Amino acid sequence: MRKSAMLLLCLLGSLLSMAQNGGIITGKVTGPDGSPIPGATVKVKGKSKGTVTIEDGTFQLRGLDKATLVISALGYGTQEVEATNGGVVSLTLAKNTKSLEEVVVTAIGVKKEKRELTFSSQEVSGADVTRSKEPNILNGLTGKVSGVQITNASGTPGGSARIVIRGITSILGNDQALIVLDGTPINNDETGGAPDGGAGTNRLSDIDPNIIESINVLKGAAATALYGSAGARGVVLITTKHGTGKPKLDFTSEVSADYAIFPERQYKYAQGDQGVYYDGNTSKTSSSWGPEMDTLTVNGQKVKSYNPLKQFFRTGITTNNSLQLTGGTPTSNYLMSYSYFDQTGTVPKDEYKRHAFFVKYSNDILPNLKSTIQLNYTYGETYKLPEGYGLTSPMVTVMTLPVSWNPLPYEDSTGAQRLYRYSRNNPYWIVDNVLNTSVVNRFIPMATFVYTPFSWLTATERVTADIYSDQQDYHVNTGDIAYGTGYIYNGRLFNRQYNHDFILQAKKQFGDFNTSLLLGDNIQSVYNADSYANGKSLSTPGFYNISNASSVNYYDYYSQTRKVGYYSEADVDWRNTLVLALSGRVDGSSVLKKTYFPYGSAALGYIFSENLPQSWRKTINFAKARVSYAVVGNDNVGAYANTTEWYQASVAGYLNSLTFPYNGSNGFQISSTLGNQNLKNELLSEFEAGLEMKLFDNRVGLEASYFNRKMTDGLVNGAQIAYSTGYTGTTLNSATMTTNGVEALVNVTPVRTRTFSWDMTLNWSKINNKVTGIVPGTNMTDVGFVYAVVGQPWGVLYGSTFDRTASGQLKINASGLPYSTTTGIVGNITPNWTGGIMNTFRYKQLALTVFIDIKKGGQIENTNEYYDYYYGIAKVTENRQDRVVAGISDVTGKANTVSTTAESYYRALSSVTEAQIQNDSYTKLRNVSLSYALRPGSLARTPFRDVTFTLTGKNLIIWHGNFTGGDPETNSWGSGNGSIGNYSYSTPSSRSVDVTLKLGF
Q: Which residue among 47, 86, 296, 754 is least packed, with the fewest CB closer than 10 Å?
């Protein structure tokens, strides 16, 4: 049907073309580098007739035999050119460095002039992303965009990152931004996490940062309404590079050294209890409450002191080599890229390897038919040890290891593990006997065809796929503390996403009005298959094949979802002063009730600098006020939430459990969670107002936004219902939440001379959030490590609290210790505000960039303290004097006077959640980059076009509050909602030094 429609459209265009009177003038407008300029204005001098160039920079004017054309583009100068019937105008516009305008990519991949935008967005160049020297694109955006919070999972190679735009949008569902690559949504799930603890890898890590031209972050609902039920969480638009001009070959090679940032701990006291020394061999304990190392002797010999962290962690080495070939002609261009990234972590055996291939070819099939074909292929391997406090994780043991005990060798003469305590593996034994491996293959093919039957009408057909598989293998050898007879896990994950867009876009000028109308439809189909087998009791130690397991269980699951959407957008620009933008979309999603849900936005922008007195415009170069209101959605449930599932039966017994198949017969039982056939989309309505200004010859720029958002019909999984129904829970549209915030971006050029310039960029944002409803009769629900509580910001930390008097003083028991018999709110993960400061200094061929990232406020639960207080490892336990804890005695009702030991005091603290809550504010000197490019004149007699050396430092300094871990930015368990807010024996993040050489041929 669609192909027939396009054929009919082509035929109609040909007939209309032949029917018109007069000749045809065609042409192409390019920039100084040969790249096409879309959106350039082509006017006939002295007449109202005109047009604009399309994406490839071409245009057509009909009904003309001869004319003088006035061609201009935002960001470029204006030129006049004589044109005649049948002639082809080829014009190169020079850049206007004083121009205020630029073209940016917006929703659905449509390019617009930034001055006409009626919503909040912020662009980051590909150069700024690669300058960060981060393999994960999200980490390269950290701190650079106002209203956006990006958090690392841990310092392990290939570790996942989390991106949230303008705060939480859903109580329990996915809150991370939608990722769009060259106009098409792609998968960013986290996969490959170790079964026994630790984060996986978010799939955006598969994209090589070297191929990125720019990233535009769409923040508000008005900016993302065209994405319908996928737009509520904000959108990250990634645009890849393209080739231009003569063939160019660029080779980049970089190497970096990574040094683990250790958590605080005490190195002063030996293993033991109540001041008595335990040697870890003949006497064992988990504690380091022994004597001081400085005075400790055995048989007259001083006991040697060790540094467990420096002994275990190594210097990580990262190499990244890339090769990129680009080129083009007036009718085609190409880009081919290959990179190999290899990172060895600071933890032995941790490693991440990525081969990334990218090919992009654009061609003029016909003068009015353009095509772009591209393929992104990635092969990645991740090797890592478990993290967290699980028994198979080496982190907890390394970080709590007594300084008086040497863990090497890790085996004794019989081949058994050497342990200084019971119930924990030797960390070096884990290195050689436990490993999680993930192998990913990913293909992202795209084909885009742009047909222009008339100068004012463009039809775009875009077909894409996103296909990846993750082969995960995890093994634990025999002799492990948790799996004494060994354990094997084989997981196979396959994800396939098809996406199709058909878009019609018309642009016409009517007197003082420039108009644009866009109509489109979208079909998205997602198939997911997940299977795994786990086996226990290995017959042969060290042979990690599932056939070696004596007991094997198998699990298989697949799902398929589909979404169909129809969207439209209309823009009207009056005299480059007043812009009205309307958009709408209707979505149908298979995970919801089988009806279509409407979304839309209305926005108005007023460029009031056009109406200022001419004398003012020398100071106020550009000023725009904008206001918008939009409604977007969120189909934030998994597949089949609207049906009641069946699953393989099992029966728990007092002594034994019964599982099926049993005696050759299979059995199934219905889920205790009732499917809801009336599920509908979450709704987010948002009001936004903003101001944008350029001042003092464009040397000062300001963008500020205020938004107010309300979420209704929030989807809540597992909402409890009456047991009389025969079910324990269901999914409901019952949650509500409000969010408002302020964002600001300032660009300043304090100094600009012929040889020296100083550019400064500052961003700041403050977001306030409140949960106003969850489920009728329920005021609180857990979201993993954090909670949603009615009347509180989302992300509450909840747990045991110290008992206190009415005046807030600690209650002290008869032993002189504080205690807990109560629970309550102990903190919240939401920061008060976030910001970033980037300074760039350029002197001739030398450039220095200094980037500082700031997060103020918010708490985190440092679970390390639970163990470190008890074991006597925490840094504060170095003070081992007896003490009288301030508070009110339960015995006397007066101020406490009972003294207690430091060991008793800190062990009392270890069991209270409130004592583990820490402020995770930070100020980071996140990135310092110094580069030097050889002068082109010095390369005249060499084969090189460009030679650039760069020295980069990452995480050079971290200032933080009372956080005792290495880096307060860490989320130990991954990037999902249920994983955040907790720091627990993660692989430390790193302080790095990177050297890069770039050669251009």
A: 754
Would you state the pLDDT for residue 273? 96
Dihedral class, residue 278 (left if φ above 0, else alpha if ψ from -120 to 50, else beta):
beta
Q: Please tell me the distance from the alpha carbon of residue 71 to that of residue 78, in angstroms, as a whole number.
A: 6
Q: Which helix (H) or strand (E) holds 221?
A: helix 221-224
Integer Cα distance of 385 and 390 in angstroms: 11
**Which long-range CB contacts under 8 A does 773-779 form with residues at least 24 apart?**
773/714, 773/734, 773/735, 773/736, 773/737, 774/171, 774/716, 774/734, 774/735, 775/716, 775/719, 775/720, 775/732, 775/734, 775/735, 776/734, 778/719, 778/720
Q: Specify the DSSP class assigned to residue 900.
A: E
The candidate with the shortest Cα–Cα distance to 550, out of 561, 559, 540, 562, is 540
Nearest to 514 by CA among 874, 51, 890, 15: 51
Q: At what angle do helices 902-910 and 864-871 cross, to 10 degrees?
A: 160
The two tokens of residue 902 are: 């430091």
Residues 6+ apart with CB under 8 A from 406: 304, 306
Q: What is the DSSP string of 723-747?
A: GGGT-SEEEEEEEEEEEEEEEEEEE
Residues near 392 by beta carbon (within 8 Å), at least 6 away in sequence: 194, 196, 197, 386, 425, 430, 434, 476, 480, 482, 483
SS3 759: strand
Alpha-carbon span 930 to 932, nearest angstrom = 7
Alpha carbon separation from 147 to 712, 745, 793, 927 (Å, rounded): 22, 10, 16, 20
CA distance 598 to 384: 45
- Report the alpha-carbon distance of residue 536 to residue 851 in Å, rounded: 50
Q: Taking Cα atoms as reference points, which of 294, 465, 448, 486 lies closest to residue 370?
A: 448
The full 3-state SS of 675-719, as one line of letters, equals CCCCCCCEEEEEEEEEEEEEECCCCEEEEEEEEEEEEEEEEEEEE
Contact 633, 232 (CB under 8 A): yes
Q: pTM, whole model, 2 decimals? A: 0.87
pLDDT digits (tens, 9 = 90+) for 88-110: 788 888 765 444 457 888 888 88
**Which residue(s) pair with 179 in the sheet?**
186, 236
Element (H, E) at 553: strand 549-574
At residue 631 the predicted structure's pLDDT band, cuts being 50, 70 and 90, is very high
Q: Mind listing the pLDDT tens digit for each residue in 427-441?
A: 999 999 999 999 999
Q: Per-residue pLDDT for 21 more than 50?
A: no
Write the pLDDT tens digit of every residue in 916-943: 999 989 999 999 999 999 988 788 888 9
DSSP, collapsed to helix, strand or coil, labels residue 325 as strand
**Across all residues in the chain, what is the average pLDDT?**
90
Element (H, E) at 570: strand 549-574
pLDDT digits (tens, 9 = 90+) for 489-507: 999 999 999 999 999 999 9
Which residues, 6 or more positions from 579, have their beta carbon under 8 angstroms from its beta carbon?
Answer: 116, 118, 571, 572, 573, 604, 605, 606, 607
Whether residue 759 contacts residue 746, with contact meaning beta carbons closer than 8 Å, is answered with no
What is the Cα–Cα distance from 401 to 407, expressed in whole angstroms? 9
pLDDT of residue 339: 97
Pairing type for strands 235-240 and 178-181 reads parallel
What's residue 343's pLDDT? 96
Q: List, as one string, the DSSP characters of 128-156.
A: HHHHTT-SSHHHHHTTTSTTEEEEE--SS
pLDDT for the residue 33: 64
Cβ density class 657-685: b for 16+ within 10 Å, e for less? eeeeeeeeeeeeeeeebbebeebbbbbbe
Instruction: Report the percentage of the chain scoring pLDDT > 70.
Output: 96
Q: How confident is the model at residue 22 (pLDDT cuts 50, 70, 90)?
A: low
Strands 332-344 and 111-113, by their bridges, are unpaired
The amino acid present at 646, given as its one-letter code, is: W
Give yes or no for a cis peptide into 409 (omega within 30° of 0).
Answer: yes
Beta 888-889 vs 811-812: how paired, if at all? parallel
